[in-house]
């Protein structure tokens, strides 16, 4: 007899991360609909200490969170600690949220032993990203084997879902099966604009400055690069004598990023790692947000969580991304902000200048953002996933 209805499995469920925002919302939603739902997350050893899942989530020790293919075999072996837990919990449905995909095989074996239905929830196509990074030698061979194992399981899973249209199309082509779109989004009951003056007072930010918000992890090897936006802000500040600052919050993962923040002290305010309430306060204090994506085409599928959080709090957006990316298409189609190609420093400087000197333009984009806000409700994805789960359970 099954003990629970739905079991979420995800590598990193710390309360400041995007996976927690998505899965935490689904947990609450499914429970409100009468499904007994729990989650399993890994305790992680990182360069900055131990990272644990949020409270109420089962913990499996121990994984290593390092940017190296060398730790993959270790994490892969440790993931088999999931199997005894799955045997005890006997879930009717297992949802494996990716990344990280090294959890897939152990989860699938455990689920097969208790006859669970498997749903693969792809937030980022980790195997494709790894293939783009490791192209030669033994590393390339390991990634190809790893990809083949995981994709064979994806084909056997009862349901596979993805978070964007581009990702769904990409993965459907790779594994040759139907992929359902379960969009990301944001909890609009929590993420909503606060009074700007009160938010600035609470954070100690100037009432007169033009503030550009940026939330998320800061590293020299991730999806994002804040150096171009800081450089553009510095140029506009010096040429127009306007006080503009980038207000940043999130973990700093390496010394290079610390040096950048230190080198742009006049152009930036770093607020550390904030909880959800802190992020909402930060965004409410700002005039607009920025998504400083790098130019690698492998990330054209992605619409980051910060996009939804900016929209929910009423912020127009400066987007640094390839014009053919899904993020750029959504922003331009709905007139939510200004899009600049990576390396187009003239466009980026012009965008900062436009928002700093033209309040009418800023207000126009803000009006569009608020009108679009209803389209990014995370409940939309939760309802779709709930229907899929119900179909699996009823079979």
Can you tell me about this structure?
With about 400 residues, the chain is of the alpha/beta class. It folds into two domains: about 5-185 and about 380-395, 3-Layer(aba) Sandwich (Rossmann fold); about 195-375, Glycogen Phosphorylase B (Rossmann fold, 3-Layer(aba) Sandwich). Helix content is about 45%, strand content about 20%. It contains 16 helices and 14 strands. The protein has helices at about 20-30, 70-80, 80-90, 105-115, 125-135, 135-155, 165-175, 195-205, 225-240, 255-265, 275-285, 305-310, 325-335, 345-355, 360-370, 380-395; strands at about 5-10, 35-45, 50, 60-65, 90-100, 115-120, 160, 180, 210-215, 245-250, 270, 290, 315-320, 335-340. Strands 1, 2, 3, 4, 5, 6, 7 and 8 form an eight-stranded mixed sheet that branches. Helix 10 (about 255-265) links the parallel strand 10 and strand 11. Helix 1 crosses helix 16 (about 380-395), helix 5 (about 125-135) runs antiparallel to helix 6 and helix 8 packs across helix 11. The radius of gyration is 21 Å and the shape is globular. The mean pLDDT is about 90.
